[in-house]
Design a protein that fits this description.
This protein is mainly alpha-helical and about 210 residues long. It has ten helices and no strands. It folds into two domains: about 55 residues, Homeodomain-like (Arc Repressor Mutant, subunit A, Orthogonal Bundle); about 130 residues, Tetracycline Repressor, domain 2 (Orthogonal Bundle), CATH 1.10.357.
């Protein structure tokens, strides 16, 4: 009697990718905690690797060291907490909502979702940028990307703007009122609630950009 032919096991690439994503997320979670607790300069790749149970080489290959880790952490914070990334939800809402006041209020609400995660990272980058060229470059990149996003949002709002307000002016208003520094000042420093913060930025944007109500 001959032995049955054994079928070779199929290589499960999806399982390998899933495990890799889990490892990467663990590294980012550990890195975020250590950066915010100990500061950028004091946190080493070796310490992150030990805490995340990966090799130093893995972190450099995957993220490119500390600057790359910060970039990934900041990018993840911008997606918000919902199952769909915040920028996608913003675009869908602004494309389908005809009332500009509702659009601005929704943008203010989204700010309350994103700002708590983004602001500590921006503070970390801003502080490190004073002495670290990589962080200075990253800070410039973050501001450039945010300005591009606000230009996009201003275009979404353009049909509702008074003729005296240019697209560039609208962009700058949105850029200013949604700045993480506003959240830092009002919520972290002055202990406003997130609801008060949202109302402040909504009213500010509406007053600057929309025609007065009759």
């Amino acid at each position: 009697m001959t032995d049955p032919v054994k079928t070779p096991r199929r290589y499960d690439a999806s399982l390998r990718r899933s495990r890799a994503r889990m490892r990467q997320q663990k590294v980012l979670d550990v890195a975020r905690e250590m950066f915010l607790r100990d500061g950028y300069a004091a946190t080493t790749v070796a310490a992150i690797a030990t805490a995340a149970d990966v090799s130093v080489e893995t972190i450099y290959k995957t993220f490119g060291g500390k600057p790359g880790l910060i970039r990934e952490i900041q990018a993840a914070a911008l997606t918000g907490t919902g199952p769909v990334p915040a920028p996608q939800r913003s675009d869908h809402m602004s494309a389908s909502e005809p009332d500009p006041e509702v659009v601005l209020r929704n943008w203010a609400t989204l700010a309350t979702e994103v700002a708590p995660a983004v602001t500590p990272i921006i503070r970390l980058v801003r502080d490190a940028a004073a002495t670290d060229p990589d962080m200075a470059t990253l800070l410039d990149d973050i501001n450039t990307q945010r300005l591009a996003r606000m230009t996009h949002n201003a275009r979404r709002l353009s049909s509702h703007l008074p003729p005296t307000i240019s697209l560039e002016h609208a962009r700058d208003v949105l850029f200013t009122y949604t700045a993480p520094e506003i959240y830092e000042l009002l919520v972290l420093a002055r202990h406003w609630s997130v609801e008060q913060y949202a109302e402040f930025i909504y009213r500010g944007m509406a007053a600057q950009l929309l025609p007065p109500s009759d």
